[in-house]
Structure formats: structure tokens, C-alpha cells
Design a protein that fits this description.
There is one protein chain. Helices cover 44% and strands 21% of the residues. The protein has 324 residues and is α/β, with parallel strands linked by helices. The chain has two domains: 2-207, inorganic pyrophosphatase (n-terminal core); 217-323, Diaminopimelate Epimerase, Chain A, domain 1 (Roll). The strands form two sheets. A six-stranded parallel sheet has the order 3-2-1-4-5-6. The protein has a six-stranded mixed sheet with strand order 7-8-9-10-12-11. Helix 2 runs parallel beside helix 6 (144-155) and helix 2 packs antiparallel against helix 7 (161-174). The radius of gyration is 19 Å and the shape is globular.
């Protein structure tokens, strides 16, 4: 890890400014880490800009950003079009929480910045951002927050307690309340965040869901069914959702007794059909999703399709599961 942090610090210091982006429809792990890293970079006396989505963000991310704003914590958020005015030949682009060019917030930016630094915790993919100055991919890490917390330890620095609270919420989201993808180091870094001032009450407020969302999700859960012993699937029909809702539903399905792997299949706001897959770890969700054109982590994976119906995608999943 020290080598990663040494290279990251060297690259930050050797560039005139830094832009950070994560994946499309960012969550608290990717965006919370981007916010924290931006403050670290500002502490190294470099201008830093964070790409923020122009479309709707998750409720938890919205509340996390509002918490920072209410406490007068300024983050240099930029839309893609705005960041074009600040990039130059000596700009460093840091991509967090994905290695795939098709999943980044702005694929156009990959072509406009020549020096790109990638940090990801998902399973190594055949699709990689090309021409990087450095790439760090470690699927043993629970979250990007875990890595950025280690960076804070390496630098012997801390941040405002509200930012630390947002980071802690991001770690909790990506580990499903520390039930999946966790190691001894994950809990160690969670303890570091607590020591740095993460507020458990504020974190709980950030992670609260609306009553309507919970009721809607429970209605879908009622219609889920086993495609094979241990494999639970939910067809979400024709209603459109964001991919975060699919992910949360897949998480919920995994909680039931007798479920080893869960799938939520539904139409997305962008017109595609999405699949969110979750696993307890005995079976790799990433292998199943990779078999149908997606990818991800052993316990957390997904896929999207532009030209298929829910039924067609479900048949693809069933075929892989039955043959496995």
C-alpha cells in the first residue's frame, strides 16, 4: 500500500491541478472518497475539482452533500462541461471506484486528460481505462473509503469530522453494514474513522430511507422467486428505476434464509435493462455477471443491456446458473 500512496502523492505534486471522478450514478463510497481525497489534495497545495452528476443522485448522497454544505465545507464540484475550463496539459485525472471506461461519469474526459490514475476495489476486468500513469486494483478491499482512510493514515492526517462521517456512511453502504467484503483491515479502518470523529447518529440520518421506497421495495420482494435452490430472482417489470434501487433490492433479497445469490432485474432510467447481483461469497456474483457481459466483485456484481427485455436477460441468467 505504501507504494500506491507514494505514487499517488508524487503524481498529485507533479501536476498543476487534479480532477477526480467516479462511476456513473455515484454512491457514497465513490463520491465520499472523492470528496475526502479532494481535501487531501488541497492540503498538498493543489487545486482539485470533483465531477458531480447533473442528474438525480441517491438520497443518501444528497444528504451527505447537504451535511457538508450546512457546515460550510466547500467542495469544488464541477459538471463535465465546467471542468473543461480548468483542465490543461498538466492536469491529473483520478478515477475512483471503477476501472471500466464505459462506467465512468464522463468517458469524454478520458480522451481530454493524458495522465490518468485509477484506484478500484472491484474484480479485475478485461475492460480497462487505457494509458494510465498508474492503476491500482485490489478486490480484497471492501471499498474505496477503506483505501482513502489508509491514505489518511499514511499521511498522518485527518479531515473535518463531517467528511469523516460521510466516508463512514460510504463504507457501511459498500459492505452492507459490514456483512460482506470485510476483512480485519476493513474493521481496522472503520475504527480509524470512528477515532477521527465519525458521528454514528449523523451517519444513521444520512443512511435513512423514505417510507415510500421501503414499501415499494417490499412489494417487489413479494414477487421474487427461486430459479434454483439458493438463487433468488426478482423481475421488476416495466417500471423504470435507477441502478441504486436495483442494488438495494438485491441486497434485501440476500438477507433471506436459504439465499446464496440474488438477482434484481429491471428497466433503468436510461432505457437499458439492468441486473444487480449479490452473493454471500460461496458462489461468485462476478463470474455469473461476466458470463452475460457484466462484471464486478465476488459478492457484488452487475450488468446492463441496451437491446434486451427483462425476460431475455432472465433467461440468460437462468442458463448460466443451471449450467453452473
Amino acid at each position: 500500500m505504501d507504494y500506491l500512496f507514494k505514487k499517488l502523492t508524487e503524481n498529485i505534486k507533479s501536476h498543476s491541478n487534479v480532477v477526480i471522478m467516479t462511476h456513473k450514478h455515484p454512491d457514497l463510497d465513490g463520491m465520499g472518497s472523492a470528496i475526502a481525497l479532494s481535501k487531501i489534495i488541497e492540503g498538498l497545495k493543489k487545486d482539485c475539482y470533483v465531477i458531480f452528476p447533473e442528474d438525480k443522485v441517491t438520497c443518501s448522497l444528497e444528504k451527505g452533500v447537504k451535511l457538508l454544505s450546512d457546515n460550510s465545507i466547500q467542495i469544488n464540484f464541477k459538471t463535465y462541461s465546467e471542468v473543461l475550463d480548468v483542465i490543461n496539459e498538466n492536469t491529473l485525472l483520478i478515477v475512483l471506484d471503477t476501472q471500466k471506461p464505459m462506467l465512468v461519469q464522463s468517458s469524454e474526459l478520458l480522451d481530454k486528460v493524458k495522465d490518468i490514475f485509477v484506484i478500484d476495489h472491484h474484480t479485475n476486468s478485461s475492460e480497462h481505462i487505457s494509458n494510465t500513469v498508474f492503476e491500482y486494483i485490489n478486490s480484497n478491499k471492501s471499498s474505496i473509503v477503506e483505501i482513502i482512510t489508509e491514505y489518511l493514515v499514511y499521511l498522518n492526517k485527518t479531515l473535518d469530522s463531517n467528511i469523516i462521517t460521510v466516508m463512514s456512511a460510504g463504507m457501511e453502504v459498500d459492505t452492507h453494514s459490514y456483512s460482506l467484503k470485510t476483512t480485519e483491515n476493513t474493521f481496522k479502518m472503520a475504527g480509524v474513522l470512528t477515532r477521527m470523529g465519525a458521528d454514528p447518529i449523523l451517519k444513521k440520518e444520512i443512511l435513512k430511507e423514505s417510507k415510500e421506497d421501503v414499501i415499494r421495495r417490499n412489494d417487489y420482494i413479494k414477487n421474487s422467486y427461486f430459479i434454483k435452490d439458493g438463487y433468488l430472482l426478482c423481475d421488476m417489470g416495466n417500471e423504470e428505476h435507477d441502478n441504486v434501487f436495483l442494488a438495494i433490492l438485491a441486497d434485501e433479497l440476500l438477507r433471506f434464509d436459504g439465499v446464496d445469490v440474488s438477482f434484481a432485474v429491471g428497466k433503468l432510467n436510461n432505457g437499458n435493462v439492468g441486473v444487480s447481483a449479490r452473493s454471500m461469497g460461496k458462489v461468485s456474483a462476478a463470474v455469473i455477471m461476466s458470463s452475460i457481459g457484466g462484471g464486478g466483485h465476488v459478492t457484488d456484481a452487475a450488468a446492463q443491456f441496451t437491446d434486451k427485455s427483462n425476460a431475455e436477460v432472465i433467461e440468460m441468467i437462468k442458463k448460466v446458473v443451471m449450467e453452473g
